[in-house]
Each structure stands twice: as structure tokens, then as C-alpha cells.
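Hey, I was hoping to borrow your eyes for a little while. No rush at all, and the record is pasted right below:
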Amino acid sequence: MIANNIFKAIADFCQNVLFAPFDGIRSMDNWWVQNTVSWILVLLGFIGFFYWMGELNKHNKAGEE
């Protein structure tokens, strides 16, 4: 019974607290504001990808010497 309440509390927290800003964005009529979050996440993904590829390149070069 306690485990069930913990999972319900986590679900309630996620739905009512963490996703509340996205509910506000979803109800807007401006397409540009709605898609800004998506573009920011795509940009962060590319930055992380290129950073990781640079670190792998450094690691590979250090192993060859």
C-alpha cells in the first residue's frame, strides 16, 4: 500500500508541478512561442553531441601517441 501511494505521489508531482508550464504553453495561440521550447532542446542536443564527439576525438588522439 505504501509503494502504491509513493508512485501516485510521484505521478501527481510530475503532472501538476513539473508539466504545469507546458500546459500553459500548449494553450497559447502563438506558434513561435510554442515551438521555442522544442528548438531550445534541439540546440542543446546538438551542443551535447558535438561536445561529446570532441571529447571522443581527444581520447582517440591521446591513445594513439
User: Anything to note?
Assistant: The chain has one domain: 2-64.
